């Protein structure tokens, strides 16, 4: 792991271009072409200088990644100035050190075991609802469907089933998430409220509407306190949990946490599902094998496919950490307040980490789990995504249902490019598909629960 040091600063080689040019290269979709070239050019880590973020060391080597994710938060911590500010001071993304660890202990169990199992039917219901009007034999974008079904599923799992509240949140949450994420990449002066139509004022208005709904739902839940133990939604669960000293999470922090859960678990999973469609249509033999497996009630290849889609088409580009003091990281010495960017694409496409890394091959994960510190779609360490198990379950149930209900026509069209949407990276053409409803799909198939075990 990284260690504190008094050695002279020694940074990896730096990209010598104006800061704004570097911003264009690394804060847009261009980074997916630029980062691999720079990594090859420098032969390993390199340093960039970005607006808002400042000096940033880009790494992907397994040992360095392990050191960063394993180092004490006394030396290296996750910066809060981006997502933390977008979601509020009570978000897990805003909390540091002991406060973060304590909150994580309260939130993580709600995405594991029996509670996770309870959300499976919600996901399948939403898949069937959103695909009911899919056209047959006509090319269309699937990303919008994936976005709707993941939003509806995570909202029902998070807020409960009150229809009017969900209707308002469906209107408010998407622009709140997208605008909030984009605003945090801007200089502070741009984020201010400068009149009704300024981005800052619009964002504040969306947040007030969100908080109003959450306040009403919290008050309603507390008015029927005896019913809380019977509910399975995240709002009810967060109202019941207590820290070790017996104190509850404050209402404002609950609102921030709920927004975080929806934002982190909605657009990223939707984009990942869209990438699955984009990849599978270009691999017809794999598509046939997956369909045969679904019909047989299996799940091993489907799970391996999920892992491989996440490897080659991660919806999050990187994970950031910031040094709190001067530290030695491998052969490098980083001063305090230096950002460290763990680049997921570089790690996932490294020929040191994977054999034939640029080939889409789910069979590499058959009978095994992805390797630590080399497979990084959910980040790592104490800041690893708390909703990783939920996202995996949601992808598994969605793909199982889609393959059971539809036949996807293969395509020889060029791969879709990467499009950054403010929160996640999605297929540039929206994951185009042509489908035909499978006549053999029966109600008995729909009632099947032969899926991967999500309870562990």
UniProtKB/TrEMBL annotation:
Keywords: Heme, Iron, Metal-binding
Pfam families: p450
A GO term for molecular function: iron ion binding
Keyword NAD attached: no
Binding sites annotated in the UniProt record for heme: 385
Domain of life of the native organism: Bacteria
Cofactor(s) this protein requires: heme
PANTHER family tied to this protein: CYTOCHROME P450, CYTOCHROME P450 12A4, MITOCHONDRIAL-RELATED
Family: Belongs to the cytochrome P450 family.
Descriptive protein name: Putative cytochrome P450 138
């Amino acid at each position: 792991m990284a260690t504190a040091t008094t050695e002279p600063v020694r940074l990896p080689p730096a990209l010598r271009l104006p800061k704004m040019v570097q911003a264009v290269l690394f804060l847009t979709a261009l980074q997916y072409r630029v980062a691999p070239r720079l990594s090859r050019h420098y032969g390993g880590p390199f340093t960039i200088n970005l607006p808002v973020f400042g000096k940033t060391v880009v790494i992907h080597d397994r040992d360095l990644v392990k050191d960063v994710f394993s180092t004490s938060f006394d030396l290296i911590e996750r910066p809060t100035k981006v997502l933390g500010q977008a979601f509020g001071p009570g978000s897990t993304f805003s909390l540091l050190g002991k406060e973060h660890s304590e909150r994580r202990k309260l939130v993580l169990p709600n995405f594991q075991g029996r509670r996770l199992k309870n959300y499976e039917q919600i996901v399948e219901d939403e898949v069937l609802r959103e695909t009911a009007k899919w056209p047959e034999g006509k090319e269309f974008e699937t990303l919008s469907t994936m976005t709707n079904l993941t939003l509806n599923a995570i909202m029902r799992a998070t807020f409960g089933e009150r229809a009017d509240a969900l209707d308002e949140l469906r209107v408010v949450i998407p622009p709140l998430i997208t605008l909030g994420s984009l605003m945090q990449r801007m200089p502070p002066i741009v984020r201010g409220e400068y009149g009704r139509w300024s981005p800052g004022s619009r964002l504040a208005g969306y947040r007030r509407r969100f908080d109003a709904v959450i306040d009403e739902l919290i008050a309603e839940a507390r008015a029927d306190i005896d019913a809380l133990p019977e509910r399975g939604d995240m709002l009810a669960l967060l109202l019941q949990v207590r820290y070790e000293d017996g104190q509850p999470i404050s209402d404002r922090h609950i609102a921030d946490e709920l927004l975080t859960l929806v934002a982190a678990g909605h657009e990223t999973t939707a984009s990942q599902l869209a990438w699955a469609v984009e990849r599978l249509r270009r691999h017809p033999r794999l598509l046939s094998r997956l369909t045969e497996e679904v019909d047989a009630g299996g799940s091993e290849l489907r799970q391996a496919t999920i892992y491989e889609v996440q490897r080659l088409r991660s919806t999050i580009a990187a994970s950031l950490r910031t040094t709190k003091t001067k530290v030695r990281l491998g052969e490098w010495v980083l001063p305090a307040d230096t950002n460290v960017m763990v680049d997921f694409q570089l790690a996932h496409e490294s020929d040191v980490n994977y054999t034939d890394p640029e080939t889409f091959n789910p069979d590499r994960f058959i009978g095994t789990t992805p390797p630590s510190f080399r497979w990084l779609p959910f980040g790592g360490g104490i800041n690893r995504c708390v909703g990783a198990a939920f996202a995996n379950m949601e992808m598994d149930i969605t793909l199982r249902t889609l393959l059971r209900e539809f036949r996807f026509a293969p395509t020889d069209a060029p791969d879709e490019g990467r499009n950054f949407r403010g929160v996640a990276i999605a297929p540039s053409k929206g994951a185009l598909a042509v489908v035909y409803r499978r006549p053999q799909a029966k109600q008995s198939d729909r009632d099947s629960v032969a899926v991967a075990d999500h309870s562990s």
